[in-house]
Amino acid sequence: MKGGSGPDRTRTQITEPVPRSSWFTLVTVSAAVFMVAMELTVIALALPEIRRAFPEVTESALSWVVSAYSLGVGALLLVAGWLADRHGRRRVFLIGVITFTLGSLAAGMSTSPAMLITARVVQSIGGSMQFPAGLALALTAFPRSRHQFAIGVWGAMGGLAAALGPSLGALLISGFGWRSVFLVNVPVAVAVLVVGPRILIESTGGDLADRRVEIVSVPLASLGVGSVILGIVQGQSWGWGSTSTSAAFGAGAVMLAVFVARSLRHPEPLFDLRLFRLRSWTVGILGTLLFSAAYFSLAVLLPSFVQETWRWSVIETGLAIAPGPFLSFLIPPYAGRLADRIGNAPILMVGAGFGVAGMAWFLVTLTVEPRLDHFLIGNLLIGVAAGLCFAQLVGATLRDVPAGMYARAGAGRTTIFQLTLAMAVALAFTMIGEPEGSGAMLAAYRRVWVVSLVCFVGLFAVFAFMYPRRDRLPAVPAATRPTEVSL
Hints:
The protein has helices at residues 11-14, 20-53, 59-87, 89-108, 113-141, 147-176, 180-183, 185-199, 217-238, 243-265, 279-299, 302-309, 314-321, 323-330, 332-342, 345-365, 372-398, 406-432, 438-465. The protein is globular. By secondary structure, the protein is an all-alpha fold.
């Protein structure tokens, strides 16, 4: 088994002191992660309320409230990562916070499903700028020997958002309506914008960022994935063999093929395929695909299952879901410290095991009759899995990436994460459909849970047998001179 050993570090390196300014940077960028991550858990709880607010909305259109955000982030993350590396991570990060705030305001004031989906796209533009720039700011501020710990804390803020999302979202929706789940971002963003300019230290990717890069193929790939998702979401109503469905799948395949061809031919592609020479990167990406499909096909639709099958209120649903995500908040900092000593793979294997146990428990115990105890056990098992996997997948994927490529490599990983999330949610909505009656609804959700279980099994196998002990990217040639972006 290849996945058990971690990097060779001494205790002196691991305990290297960290300046106070580094902690301030980590807190600031983590607050932004909290804001963006909160959006996902809260929107899952708000979907039934949005459905009731817009009776004309179809299930396929409702799925775009989630998928439009993920696709937008996926389309722009690598562009934003390159902009951050070249023009300043602090600058791009703060512009992203402003854009995300404007999108949140527009979503909170939406008067139609189309306006809400458009506002979610604006949010995605801001989110795409915050993620790679913020992570790069944190990694630049900390010594390399403490990167796994910094990533653990950064990831824990996403866990905290997931922990508070169900209960806070339930209170907001019950007291102020579904619009409040978007407007709640505003005070957090204002705090980041007040503190950030005073705390964050500007940094760039150096010579690696000052290159003539190709910025068309990655957004094109995201449009390709979006076209495939369109075919998946609309296939049932259009007809799986219809011209429209076939055209959507065909256009997606063509755009993805063009992305691969341009990335392979261009001397400086935005998505640097040389990263796949790093086995740790490749295996980490595969693990990200499996975890995203396993977790989000469950998490985004679980509140709808509880509210529509068991007829629980928003408050009851939020409080029932909260314990699992709360565990996912508590675990990452400790897992990060442990990863600095033993590596990411053993932790991810344990996390995948908890995921398998949680999905198996749901499949065996959940019925149309409400049972809080059965629900709580499965929810806690999945919470442990998320706490052990979220940040560890980031650390495992970026473990051997050169410092000058932090933002773009992080953006590449998160691009794949977001696109997989959008695909998983679209597939889950399609698999569930519009069943009539509690029994049919339970059977539909069980199909999704089986897929999640299989993906968790795959995640365990990937890090048990494929993840390397150590890896190194081949030397990157020095840039000749800074030039303009290539189209």
